[in-house]
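User: Quick sanity check before I run a bigger batch. Here is a single chain. Can you write out its predicted 3D structure?
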Amino acid sequence: MSTGKYIPKVGEEFEWSYKEAVAWTRAKAICVTDKAIGYEDSKSWIVTVCKSCNFRPIPTKADVERDELVRIIEDSYSSYSGAVHIQKVGFTIPKKIKRSDVASVVDVNSCMKGYEDETLIRAVCDLLGDLVESDV
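Assistant: Done. Predicted structure follows.
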């Protein structure tokens, strides 16, 4: 039965903390059992962590920036300073996206199948500008 809780796989880097702890410890799983996860610490000791602890994947730069953006938006919900603050933070320019990826997102979320989708796809691609690359 799956609980939906993140559990790292063998060879995967992850972070863990005790239920009430704020600090996270970085590790790389060397074994995963039914009840615990094992990793090697900096002194070459094998440490086991009970699966009842909190686990999360190593946050990527994009994850960190997303969390920061959400925080800015939540903090400035009632004011107009959010847009200015977002511009000053200097988020990483995203990777290019293929036009077909834009089309598939529009298709999945569309309630108007047909020519309206192409208009929306074109509008999104125009908005993204140089970040869109052709599929050819």
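Strands lie at 13-17, 25-32, 36-40, 46-50, 54-57, 97-98, 132-133.

User: Great, the batch can go ahead then.
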